[in-house]
Amino acid sequence: MESNSKTIVWFRRDLRIEDNPALAAAGRNGSILPVFLWCPKEEGQFYPGRVSRWWLKQSLIHLEQSLKSLGAELVFIKAQSTLSALLECVDAVGATKVVYNHLYDPVSLVRDHNIKQKLGELGISVQSYNGDLLNEPWEVYNDDGKVFTTFDAYWEKSLRMQNETVSHLPPWRLTQAAGSVKMCSIQELGLENELEKSSNALLGKGWAPGWSNADKALTEFVENNLLAYSKDRLRVGGNSTSLLSPYLHFGEISVRKVFNSVRLKQILWTKEGNYVGDESANLYLRAIGLREYSRYICFNFPFTHERSLLNNLKFFPWNVDQAHFKAWRQGRTGYPLVDAGMRELWATGWVHNKIRVIVSSFFVKFLLLPWQWGMKYFWDTLLDADLESDIIGWQYISGSLPDGHELERLDNPEVQGFNYDPEGEYVRHWLPELARMPAEWIHHPWDAPLTVLKAAGVELGMNYPSPIIDVDVARDRLMQAIFIMREKEAAVNAADANGTVEVVFDNSENVGDSANPKDVVKGKVPCPSSSSYDQRVPSMGNVYMNKKRSKPEEERKKLKDNGLNCKNEGKISNMDGDLCSTAESSSMKKQMTTSRNSFSVPRAISMSYDRKTFGDEASSDEKLQKE
Questions:
Q1: What are the two backbone dihedrals, phi and then psi, of residue 35, each rounded to the nearest 5 degrees?
Q2: Given this model, what pLDDT does residue 334 score?
Q3: Residue 241 annotated as binding?
Q4: Does this model's pTM top 0.85?
Q5: Is 539 annotated for ligand binding?
Q6: Residue 519 marked ligand-binding
Q7: Does 385 count as an annotated binding residue?
Q8: Which of 58, 286, 357, 504 has the fewest Cβ atoms nearer than 10 Å?
């Protein structure tokens, strides 16, 4: 080891001292310069929302204090270019090495790969580590060396690979690298503006960001709430889940620690014959597995932030209706459970896993709005906004994954209301205009007698909206849209001798060339690395083949015989490829361009949040679940 070496430790979404492999490696090997770089320009359309930035700021303050107690000062830099800022840090302290922990979203993959190449060309050693996952995405393949595209098969293989994990002990002392670096205060990063501070102050009453607080939250969950997780996790309202997802997103706690803590508890319960505890632990570990799987899919199919994994949805006639999109965002759809969920999301930046599934399904199946719009809105508003998890959740709901919801499935919010909020307490809390509605009618007030509505002070269409669309009409529209999609798909496939297979392309420039599809296979990576721990990049130009889930011909004929034709086809936009993959507000349209060498990202969304109007499927719905 070179005790005189100087290393730049580049913090991103690994804001912790404990079990941080990049920090641990650098701390053992000379002096360090811990750096957090904030480059809004490079965040592009995935610039974090208000509540997510609030969490990030609080977590950074916590990390700064922890590093200072160990003898190192966290350097904050607001930059136009991450690469340029890193080079300035290297020059300022005479560093010979840069270390960081991996990220797996498509934007970070491109940026990190380019930075590693440029630094390497300049003779600067770059080392990256796995600080976010149990297994790297390039480590898990099926017996043929191919990528998994169903969760159960992936998770079974991942669990078999779980060897005894190495936890990186926190350094007891750090040495700050000498040198003068142009830095700013955390306030000058601009993570929070003056207009946001009053709203953000409320968040601090319910949440405590920071890596040491993450440890406390884990202990509280494992010791007091994990046992009842199998029973309580579907109860909307209240804290029936672990609430660890924001801590995991920002890397304030390692997934290894969470997994091992739950697994140890499970082993103890199994020995005791506690089958309820064993089931709870299994279900929670699946939730962890889904987080792993989200990174696995996004790494191996880096176009999934803008296009469906299954190619058939490119023919779906999405209904690009800004008025419906606004009604959904504001919780004004006329379906109480959906509206309650959306108002809670806006008010708190948080919503229960089950509610996420319900509002997402309504968005896609009832309103036929493009799933990319909903995914982007979740990114903008969730406290635990996590791009990879949101991608896989929305694709799952939209029937875009081989093991996802069937596109034909349409869940009735009224039925779901009685299933998950039988007394209506959750709805009453977030919809004060329905506070006096009896439980019998609260999930379908449009059916209530006028005397009941009058006694409850409810005027449908006035102080609470009538349903934006009838359930039966929504079902007919969905089936009609599916019929149109399959007709278009069949027409395209008719000209293709191999039209009975579903082809999933990556997002390279020759994406349209499907003449010779290939499986994504385990292979050599084009990016040179200095260690087996280093970040890899997905192989460009590969495609994946998977059998379609299509209806039999007799079903298509039945749909046609029932008269499901597209009378409003002219009013519905066919959103192909990169479509209008995110919504644009009427007040501002922001264009974004990308390099030829980067994955394309949709245009940025600029929401106009007008808030003047108001102050079973458990196991299959896990894809939207936050830990």
A1: -130, 140
A2: 97
A3: yes
A4: no
A5: no
A6: no
A7: yes
A8: 286
